[in-house]
C-alpha cells in the first residue's frame, strides 16, 4: 500500500471510532434533569414607555439660519401684485421639494433643439431646461447661459400679495 492510502485508511478508522454510540452521557442527562426541576426563570416586565406630545415642525418655509440675511428697505421695496400668484393647480416637480440654496450649477448641455443646465443638489445632478421648476417658492427657470441659470421665484410680499423675485445660480468654478 502506498503512504497516502495508509494515511486515508487510518483517518477513516479514527472517524469511525468517533461515531461509537457507547459514549456515556449520564452527567449531561443529570444536569438537564436538574435544570428542568429547578424554579423557572422569571423575566422582568418591559418598562412602561411614556408618550410625548407630537411636535409639528412649521419653520420649513422660513429663511435658513445659515444663509446670509438680506436687509430690504421697506420704502424701496416694490409692492406685490394681485396679478402675480402661484398656480395651486400646477403639478409639482421633484426639485420643488428642496431649497433653491442647495443647488449649484455644474455645467450645461446643448443640442440642436435646446440647452440644458446641470444642477447638483438634492442627492444628485439634475438636468433642467427653460420652463422647469425648482425650489420651494415656485422658482421657474427663465434663462440658461454657460455661466448661470436665471430663475424667477414667486414669494409673498408680507402684505397679502405676491411678487416675483429674480434669482441667479452661477456656474461653480472648480479650482
Write the H/E string, N to C.
HHEEEEEEE
Helix content: 10-25%
Mean pLDDT, to the nearest integer, reads: 83
| Structural class estimated from helices and strands | alpha+beta
Instruction: Outline the biggest β-sheet.
Output: 4 strands, antiparallel
Would you give the CATH topology of the domain at 94-170?
Answer: SH3 type barrels
Proportion in β-strands: 25-35%
- What is the CATH C-level name of the domain at 94-170? Mainly Beta
- Based on CA atoms alone, the radius of gyration comes out at 36 Å
Low-confidence stretches: none
Tally of DSSP helical segments: 2
Q: What is the total tally of β strands? A: 7
Task: Provide the CATH architecture of the domain at 94-170.
Answer: Roll
Q: Calculate the terminal CA-CA distance, rounded to whole Å.
A: 76 Å
Overall morphology: elongated
Q: Largest sheet, order of strands side by side? A: 4-5-6-7
Keywords for this structure?
175 residues, four-stranded antiparallel β-sheet, PilP, SH3 type barrels, three-stranded antiparallel β-sheet, 2 helices, elongated, alpha+beta, Pilus assembly protein PilP
Task: Summarize the topology.
Elements: H1 3-18, H2 26-37, E1 104-110, E2 115-121, E3 124-128, E4 133-134, E5 139-144, E6 148-156, E7 162-170
Antiparallel strand pairs: 1-2, 2-3, 4-5, 5-6, 6-7
Describe the structure.
The protein has 175 residues and is α+β, with helices and mostly antiparallel strands. The chain has a domain at 94-170: SH3 type barrels (Roll), CATH 2.30.30.830. The protein is 16% helix and 26% strand. The chain is built from two helices and seven strands; from the N terminus they run ααβββββββ. It has helices at 3-18, 26-37, and strands at residues 104-110, 115-121, 124-128, 133-134, 139-144, 148-156, 162-170. The strands form two sheets. A four-stranded antiparallel beta sheet has the order 4-5-6-7, with no helix packed on it. It has a three-stranded antiparallel beta sheet with strand order 1-2-3, with no helix packed on it. The protein is elongated, with a radius of gyration of 36 Å. The termini are far apart.
Amino acid at each position: 500500500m502506498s503512504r497516502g492510502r495508509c494515511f486515508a485508511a487510518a483517518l477513516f478508522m479514527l472517524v469511525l471510532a468517533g461515531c461509537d454510540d457507547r459514549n456515556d452521557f449520564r452527567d449531561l442527562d443529570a444536569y438537564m434533569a436538574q435544570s428542568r426541576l429547578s424554579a423557572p426563570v422569571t423575566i422582568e416586565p418591559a418598562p412602561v414607555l411614556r408618550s410625548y406630545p407630537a411636535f409639528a415642525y412649521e419653520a420649513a418655509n422660513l429663511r435658513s439660519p445659515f444663509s446670509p440675511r438680506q436687509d430690504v428697505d421697506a420704502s424701496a421695496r416694490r409692492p406685490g401684485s394681485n396679478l402675480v400668484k402661484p398656480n395651486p393647480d400646477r403639478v409639482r416637480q421633484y426639485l420643488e421639494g428642496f431649497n433653491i440654496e442647495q443647488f449649484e450649477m455644474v455645467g450645461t448641455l446643448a443640442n440642436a433643439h435646446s440647452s440644458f443646465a446641470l444642477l447638483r443638489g438634492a442627492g444628485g445632478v439634475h438636468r433642467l431646461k427653460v420652463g422647469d421648476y425648482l425650489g420651494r417658492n415656485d422658482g421657474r427657470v427663465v434663462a440658461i447661459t454657460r455661466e448661470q441659470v436665471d430663475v424667477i421665484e414667486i414669494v409673498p410680499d408680507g402684505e397679502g400679495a405676491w411678487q416675483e423675485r429674480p434669482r441667479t445660480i452661477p456656474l461653480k468654478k472648480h479650482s
